Amino acid sequence: MSFRVRQVIAIVAVVLMAAATGWSQGSPRVTGVAPASAKVGDSVSVNGENLGKANVSAVFISNSSDDFPATVVEQSDGKIVIKVPKVKAGDYNVSIQVKNDILIQPIRLAVQE
Measured between alpha carbons, how far is 61 from 90 in angstroms, rounded to an integer? Predict the structure, then answer.
């Protein structure tokens, strides 16, 4: 086998390993919030998978028409702690920003007065 063929095989192997590593990390996903009910300014844990800074750049609480940015206090792959932003009392979805997209998750947070 020529040096050039071995070189091409080595490059293909590296590309395949890098792709497999990227695919195994998975997409960010929110699985729950604790507590499920909070007041403006309270800390809430947003729990899930792949929530680290490399994947999630912001967290919002969202209603049917607006996304309200929450202050991120702490962030790891399994949990993001946020401060509830100043919003009206009501039920909101938790949303995460992944690259340029805001993904509304099927997880609810009740904001109390």
Answer: 11
